[in-house]
């Protein structure tokens, strides 16, 4: 049974069925904000999709909430934290910069800086001899 | 060992760490989410009763002892599988189960209860799914354990059967309650 | 009967691979000529066996043999025959067999085309590849056998191939990508064989370079095809999602790109030997890691295969053995590798060093972002996500220095050059790129700083390529004479870098200047969308081969001129009852217009999406250029000449002289 259920879930999430809503906005800024936010929220029940891409009922509901909040004049930050409070960090495709994520955000840059320093120190001081 | 060999060992060490990480990650189901509401109070709500739309439930109507919140809907296939188990637990245990009829039509919800029996202490009709979202529900059925202070202590996503009841829910309920609860006999 | 034959052939291939993987090393160690000759023949025969086995599975698909579980689950009698063939690799088991086929194909190719190489080295190379094949065939046979029957209850019809995969893109994308993934096993095998022999001179780099380039060409095209397929098939206009499965293919590509560059430096200047060997190992390790991520289910992805933990453990153990053993060999032997270090800070060597450092860091970043949810969960138990906002930002940060260095790197001299004359050569080009970028951005929309930076960088790389060609012309009588002087491998570099520029421009311009509008429209109605008018003039239901289609017909106007007519569809597939949207796209070199049918609304209107995507084609066009650059590089005359010289007299060290003369060309 469990397998059947997960099979059904899989089928459901595999559909390329664009759900298109025709929300109306008062300003272009609102529309942009709405589009931006729905592209940064992860659908909690899908495989790996934003709520913008997913046709799951839950994504539809969440998009509606985002729409309402955008129309109410809420900021991106407050809408994202509304979602985060309910569904956890999982819904945020943009991982917040907090201690648990420091490694994620800063390690690549740190590695690069270390390489840079080593290269400059080693190669920069080197005396090049003419080829034999 | 010279310096070169020491540097050459670094990739192996990193690699071993990764393999160990993967080994344990294989046991986790990446689709199961933890609830973000653990140790937080049940969210506020103001919703009609399923059986009587005139009656409005709020947080104050919730039981003031250890109880379960079960989120279900007649549209949800696994909920049909889960239902008989809930009936059994409702009879056997004195733990109230609060039903949240999630994104369902009133008629369908009532028919479900009429046909299959009502294990619930009370049923909140959440047609719009707002309470569901406040609870961080992402797939019915979901079951929450709430202590007598109204604090959420645990969430289980998926069908509850005897195995889940005995292995996952009971230990937590015992711990929350501070006393032993007799497990159910599994077939 | 046929599936059993296929199974038997695969078992035979397995046994052969075990022999190849063991006897080759023994033969090479003891210089046993008979065994060494055996390895070549074994490699070819394994390939033939796997090919025959693959054909057996294909026949089962063509014949609709639903007694085979894999066929029953992934095909259907209504499916057109070409999709029945591509359905062979439409899911886990069959795609694994395709993987094995391609791996053994590369192995056979190495056996056939390495006649001029030392025999014991080739034996070891084939031995390493044989061992990899053992692992993958075992994985297929023991955990994912596509030949398994469903007896005695044979389904009347199959469950159908996922409609998403019933598409031209799926026919070509996986084979291309696998050619790339698996192709990196050749350079990996060369590296391990070289380490085992303990003599990693510049020659191994020369030998493995063309193989690496070929694998990289396939991989570039495979990734581009996947991106293009997602763009037109998934119906939301996206072309890259930073999904774990995409990252799994992107990481070996990035590492492979670094490898191509460091192999060049190692071959020509004898520098970075140790790093190049490690990179060769890492590139193929990332290919294996990709297989693990895609097929084990540790990460959620839109396009991962249905999987179970047993398979995950199997690949993990296999991955652990292969990569662990390789890194161990590397650790033990790398101290014997002697690199030259005779170059200054302003030199092509340093430029390539930075190219490698940056590409390695980008690979690390993608790996970290992909695995971070797992790391996080191991430490805190909580689930988290890393998605496009992270990857886009981080990728841009590291792409900026890569792109800035690219034109400089391709013209700076080997060994040493002074900084000032170098910079004076470039500043005019840099300023022109910047001004032109502003002009382009103004034409397309608002002056967004990031769009200007990105466009400038794309143009800067483009200018670098132009400058290189003009520079050659300046030294010669005419432009054509100058262009003729440039060797094929340098043309390869220029064209590939041109491809990078084209892709960068495509990515930047389409990201910043796309329009996306959802509209409500009734049949017969015309709606204004930004600068365009959309007219919904017809609607039809038609019957497809295995689906029913509902298609709307739309005209797009700019002012009163008809730009295009589009017919987006919704299809309902008979077997799976799945509904799919088929976008209709008016493709153009400078813009795509893309339409998707949504749902009918209450009042007889339809919800439709209209996208305007400027320069989106350039993303894939650039990949074609990159691949073309690779083709030019391997068609360089020194690879052909080498073989001819080899025939004349068995002088092994002609490569250095050739490389030397080529440098002279360049200076």
Q: Note the main sheet of chain B.
A: 5 strands, mixed
Derived from helix and strand composition plus strand pairing, the structural class of chain C reads alpha+beta
Give the helix level of chain B as a range of percent: 25-40%
Q: What is the strand content of chain B?
A: 15-25%
Strand/helix succession of chain B: HEEEHEHEHEEH
Going by CATH, the homologous superfamily of chain B would be Glutaredoxin
Hey, roughly how much beta strand do the residues of chain C contain? 5-15%
Under CATH at level 1, the class of chain B stands as Alpha Beta
Number of helices of chain C: 20
Globally, the shape of chain C reads globular
Tell me the Rg of chain C in angstroms.
Answer: 27 Å
Helix content of chain C: 55-70%
Q: How far is the first residue's CA from the last residue's CA of chain B?
A: 62 Å
Quaternary arrangement of the chains shown?
heterotrimer
Principal-axes shape call of chain B: elongated
Terminal-residue CA separation of chain C: 65 Å
Structural description of this entry:
The complex is a heterotrimer of chains A (132), B (187) and C (667). By secondary structure, chain A is mostly helical. Chain A has one domain (2-96): Orthogonal Bundle (Helicase, Ruva Protein, domain 3), CATH 1.10.8. Chain A has five helices and no strands. Chain B is an alpha/beta fold and 187 residues long. Chain B contains five helices and seven strands, in the order αβββαβαβαββα. In chain B, strand 6 (142-146) and strand 7 form a beta hairpin. Chain C has 667 residues and is α+β, with helices and mostly antiparallel strands. Among the domains of chain C are: 1-165, no CATH class; 515-615. Helix content of chain C is 66%, strand content 11%. In chain C, strands 2, 3, 4, 5, 6 and 7 form a six-stranded antiparallel β-sheet that branches. Chain C has a four-stranded antiparallel β-sheet with strand order 1-10-9-8, with helices on one face. Mean pLDDT of chain C is 88; it is low at 649-667. Chains A and C meet through helix 1 and helix 5 of A and helix 12, helix 13, strand 1, strand 7 and strand 9 of C.
């Amino acid at each position: 049974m469990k397998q059947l259920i997960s099979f059904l879930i899989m089928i459901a999430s595999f559909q390329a069925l664009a759900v298109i809503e025709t929300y109306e906005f008062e300003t272009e800024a609102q529309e942009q904000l709405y589009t931006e936010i729905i592209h940064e929220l992860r659908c909690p029940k899908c495989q790996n999709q934003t709520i913008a891409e997913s046709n799951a009922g839950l994504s539809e509901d969440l998009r509606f909430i985002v729409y309402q909040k955008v129309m109410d004049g809420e900021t991106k930050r407050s809408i994202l934290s509304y979602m985060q409070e309910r569904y956890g960090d999982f819904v945020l495709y943009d991982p917040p910069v907090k201690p648990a994520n420091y490694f994620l955000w800063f390690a690549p840059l740190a590695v690069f800086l270390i390489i840079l320093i080593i290269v400059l120190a080693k190669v920069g001081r080197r005396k090049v001899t003419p080829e034999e | 060992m010279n310096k070169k060999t020491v540097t050459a060992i670094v990739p192996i060490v990193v690699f071993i760490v990764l393999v160990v990480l993967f080994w344990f990650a294989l046991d986790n189901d990446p689709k199961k989410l933890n609830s973000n509401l653990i140790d937080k109070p049940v969210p506020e709500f103001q919703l009609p009763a399923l059986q009587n739309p005139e009656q409005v439930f709020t947080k104050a109507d919730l039981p003031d002892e250890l109880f379960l919140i079960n989120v279900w809907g007649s549209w949800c296939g696994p909920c049909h599988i889960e239902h008989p188990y809930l009936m059994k637990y409702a009879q056997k245990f004195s733990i109230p189960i609060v039903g949240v009829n999630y994104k369902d039509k009133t008629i369908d919800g009532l028919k479900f209860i009429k046909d299959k029996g009502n294990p619930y202490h009370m049923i909140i009709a959440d047609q719009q799914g707002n309470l569901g979202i406040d609870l961080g529900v992402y797939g019915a059925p979901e079951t929450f354990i709430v202590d007598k202070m109204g604090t959420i202590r645990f969430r289980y996503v998926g069908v509850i059967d005897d195995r889940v009841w005995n292995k996952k829910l009971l230990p937590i309920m015992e711990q929350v309650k501070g006393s032993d609860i007799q497990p159910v006999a599994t077939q | 009967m046929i599936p059993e034959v296929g199974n038997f052939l695969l078992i035979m291939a397995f046994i052969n691979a075990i022999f190849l993987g063991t006897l080759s090393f023994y033969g090479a160690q003891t210089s046993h000529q008979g065994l060494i000759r055996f390895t070549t023949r074994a490699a070819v025969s394994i390939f033939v066996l796997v090919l025959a086995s693959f054909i057996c599975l294909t026949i089962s698909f063509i014949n609709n043999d639903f007694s085979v579980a894999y066929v029953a689950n992934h095909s259907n009698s209504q499916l057109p025959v070409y999709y029945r063939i591509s359905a062979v690799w439409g899911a886990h088991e069959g795609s694994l067999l395709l993987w094995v086929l391609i791996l053994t194909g590369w192995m056979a190719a190495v056996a056939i085309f390495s006649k001029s190489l030392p025999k014991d080295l080739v034996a070891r190379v084939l031995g390493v590849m044989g061992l990899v094949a053992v692992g993958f065939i075992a994985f297929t046979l023991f955990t994912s056998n596509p030949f398994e029957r469903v007896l005695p209850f044979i389904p009347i019809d199959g469950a159908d191939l996922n409609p998403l995969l019933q598409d031209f893109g799926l026919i070509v994308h996986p084979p291309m990508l696998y050619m790339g993934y698996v192709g990196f096993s050749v350079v990996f095998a060369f590296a391990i064989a070289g380490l085992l022999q303990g003599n990693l001179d510049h020659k191994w780099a020369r030998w493995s370079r063309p193989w690496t380039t070929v694998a990289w060409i396939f991989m570039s095209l495979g990734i581009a095809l996947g991106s293009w397929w997602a763009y037109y098939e998934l119906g939301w206009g996206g072309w890259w999602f930073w999904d774990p499965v995409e990252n799994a293919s992107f990481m070996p590509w990035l590492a492979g790109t670094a490898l191509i560059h460091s192999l060049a430096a190692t071959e020509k200047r004898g520098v970075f030997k140790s790093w190049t060997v490690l990179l060769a190992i890492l590139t193929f390790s990332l290919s294996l890691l990709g297989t693990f991520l895609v097929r084990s289910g540790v990460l959620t992805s839109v396009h991962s295969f249905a999987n179970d933990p047993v398979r995950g453990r199997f690949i993990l153990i296999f991955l652990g053995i292969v990569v662990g053993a390789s890194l161990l060999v590397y650790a033990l032997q790398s101290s014997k590798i002697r690199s030259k270090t005779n170059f200054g800070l302003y030199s092509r060597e340093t430029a390539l060093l930075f190219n490698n450092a940056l590409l390695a860091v980008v690979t690390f970043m993608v790996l970290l972002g992909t695995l971070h949810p797992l790391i996080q969960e191991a430490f805190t138990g909580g689930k988290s996500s890393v998605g496009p906002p992270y990857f886009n930002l981080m990728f841009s940060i590291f792409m900026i220095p890569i792109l800035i260095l690219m034109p400089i790197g391709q013209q700076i001299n080997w060994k040493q050059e002074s900084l000032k004359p170098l910079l004076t050569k470039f500043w005019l080009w840099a300023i022109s790129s910047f001004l032109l970028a502003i002009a382009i951005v103004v034409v397309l929309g608002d002056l967004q700083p990031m769009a200007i930076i990105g466009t400038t960088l794309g143009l800067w790389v483009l200018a670098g390529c132009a400058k290189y060609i003009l520079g050659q012309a300046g030294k010669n009588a005419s432009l054509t004479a100058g262009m003729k002087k440039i060797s094929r491998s340098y043309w390869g570099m220029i064209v590939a870098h041109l491809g990078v520029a084209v892709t960068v421009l495509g990515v930047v311009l389409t990201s910043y200047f796309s329009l996306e509008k959802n509209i409500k429209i009734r049949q017969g109605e015309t709606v204004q969308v930004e600068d365009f008018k959309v007219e919904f003039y017809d609607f039809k239901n038609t019957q497809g081969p295995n689906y029913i289609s509902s298609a709307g017909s739309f005209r797009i106007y700019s002012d009163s001129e008809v730009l295009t007519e589009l017919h987006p569809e919704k299809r309902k597939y008979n077997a799976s009852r799945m509904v799919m949207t088929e976008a209709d796209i008016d493709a153009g070199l400078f813009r795509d217009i893309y339409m998707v049918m949504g749902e009918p609304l209450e009042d007889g209107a339809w919800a439709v999406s209209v996208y305007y995507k400027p320069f989106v084609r350039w993303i894939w066009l650039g990949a074609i250029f990159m691949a073309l650059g690779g083709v030019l590089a391997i068609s360089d005359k020194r690879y052909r000449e080498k073989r001819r010289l080899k025939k004349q007299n068995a002088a092994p060290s002609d490569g250095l002289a050739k490389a030397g003369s080529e440098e002279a060309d360049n200076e």
